[in-house]
Amino acid sequence: MPDVTLVEVGPRDGFQPIGPFIPTAEKLAIIQGCVAAGLTRIEAGAFVGASAVPQMADAEAILAGTLALPGADPQMLVPNARHARRAIAAGARHLVWVISVSEAHNRGNIRLSPAESVAEFTALLPELEGIRLRMNIATAFDCPFTGRVAPEDTLALVGQLAALRPDAEYGLCDTTGRADPAHVAELAAACRASFPRVAGWAFHGHDTYGLGLANIMAAHGAGIRVFDAAIAGLGGCPFAPGATGNVATEDAAWMFARMGLSTGIDLGALRPVAERAARIPGGSPGGRVRQALAARPAHLAA
Amino acid sequence: MPDVTLVEVGPRDGFQPIGPFIPTAEKLAIIQGCVAAGLTRIEAGAFVGASAVPQMADAEAILAGTLALPGADPQMLVPNARHARRAIAAGARHLVWVISVSEAHNRGNIRLSPAESVAEFTALLPELEGIRLRMNIATAFDCPFTGRVAPEDTLALVGQLAALRPDAEYGLCDTTGRADPAHVAELAAACRASFPRVAGWAFHGHDTYGLGLANIMAAHGAGIRVFDAAIAGLGGCPFAPGATGNVATEDAAWMFARMGLSTGIDLGALRPVAERAARIPGGSPGGRVRQALAARPAHLAA
């Protein structure tokens, strides 16, 4: 077991806002590169409405291609029961159910209130036996429409879901990138203390305000050991300069390697994959390590 | 007293690598903007060889202009006795003495061994009475030529200097940006425990690998409350893509504000100064907050 696990979410959260359709073969090549570099947990795509998110229209093919990779553990994001059934029918055995603490955000994202999303999830439970679950708690810290989210509200939603599926992994998602290290440390500690039966915790951050790695460290300090990250820091919106993506996987991998913590990732193998992902037309790559290592003589790049 | 103090080092560390000479009036306008926004501690420039660092050739005028600003506390970097005397003669009352733990780096930077730098500092002491001192311990973590620096070596150098001037503020400098949060936390804690008579500690980081804010948080966790930062994240070398500068002052100010910690900085007043600094010809601006706030509607930018 590595000391820390990075979940590669670039193929979902990173590709999703990119306008020009990324050919399925190119997506699979990047996924294959990530898995080969040790990123075996990979959010390969989302089963969502193809009109809402055209970039995810090839979810079936992406799932099939990723399942065929030795060692790969693809998790597929689903927003509701209909799409969860599609994912399961396509062979998914690991789903990411996303639900927002903020009513405004859940309505914008899924067109349901959080309570309606919980009810839909509850009704679906019999069909989720044997399906591994990541429960992504969106706007756990901050909502783009209503600002800071009270920790009590996040704890209340986690509590409802944890009573149903304590065996799931719960992801505390900083949807806006506006969580700060103190907020992350406080909420992560409160969640772990409040729900000791929950099997696993994860932190999903964005680097919009540059706090991605600082927030990961805060979550790590509170005992979380699973972190989402996106290859090349993809995920920014090309139409909103500065609305950057997830923490760059290579930056997080580099940080943990410098700290002497194992991630199972071969950074040398990951670098060309990150360079390839950064060149995707229409993307807004982020992160620092790609450029920092490229600027160094080879013997000092390690 | 603010909870946390940011020292604005952009006019020295940020401007220094910029090729085209920044007009003295432009430098002073940015310094004035920083001071007006609450960055009263400001590393306004360096007294160094004008042939080695042409950008710092106007140090006397910059010092005089900064001393004239109400509330400003300019600190001037000096590498040796000769330049320290120049700075004092020009009216400096707050000096930054820089010395590297790494012999290779000190020789490259100052053309002396660390022991020779200590001897020169010791001989100068009678002339430094009444002069406030920041002792910048360069390569405290990592050297661009020889890699990771052993904590014992850093502690040994700090110990020699602290015996001479325990009233100084000691700056642990991550010269290469390759320190990681665990390394920062460990060394900062060891320094504070080993030298309890030292009056103050500071951390000076670079964001080259994206760890600037994570390392600041690690230093904060170890009890350090003074952090160097550069407006607009200046400091990168235009000829080495990815060799980025200090942590952006506006990013650090934004982070601490989100955490509810006071810095005395008015971020609204700082933003236009950061935008101005980012437009300096030949600079390599960094940081995230400038762009993130620019991308947001005004009512959500707070």
Polypeptide structure, described:
2 copies of one chain form a homodimer. With 302 residues, chain A is α/β, with parallel strands linked by helices. The first copy, chain A, has a single domain (5-300), classed as TIM Barrel (Alpha-Beta Barrel). Helices cover 40% and strands 16% of the residues of chain A. Chain A is built from 12 helices and 10 strands. The first copy, chain A, has helices at residues 10-14, 24-36, 59-67, 81-89, 103-110, 114-124, 151-164, 181-194, 212-221, 249-258, 267-278, 289-294, and strands spanning 5-8, 41-46, 73-78, 94-100, 132-138, 142-143, 147-148, 169-173, 200-204, 226-229. In chain A, the strands form 2 sheets. Chain A has an 8-stranded parallel beta sheet. The first copy, chain A, has a two-stranded antiparallel sheet with strand order 6-7. The longest helix of chain A has 14 residues, at 151-164. Chain A is globular and about 50 Å long. At the A-B interface, helix 8, helix 9, helix 10 and helix 12 of A face helix 8, helix 9, helix 10 and helix 12 of B. Chains A, B: One of its GO terms (molecular function) is metal ion binding. Chains A, B: Keywords: Lyase, Metal-binding. Chains A, B: Belongs to the HMG-CoA lyase family.
Provide tags for this entry:
homodimer; 302 residues; alpha/beta; TIM Barrel; eight-stranded parallel β-sheet; two-stranded antiparallel sheet; 12 helices; Aldolase_TIM (chains A, B); lyase (chains A, B)
| DSSP, total strands of chain A | 10
Q: What is the gyration radius of chain A calculated from CA atoms?
A: 18 Å
How far is the N terminus from the C terminus of chain A?
23 Å
Count of alpha/pi helices of chain A: 12
CATH homologous superfamily (4th level) name of chain A? Aldolase class I
**How many separate domains make up the residues of chain A?**
1
Low-confidence stretches of chain A: none
Question: How would you classify the quaternary structure?
Answer: homodimer
Describe the strand arrangement of the main beta sheet of chain A, using strand numbers: 1-10-9-8-5-4-3-2
- Calculate the mean pLDDT score of chain A and round it: 94
What proportion of the residues of chain A is helical, as a percent range? 40-55%
Largest interface: A-B, 43 and 43 residues
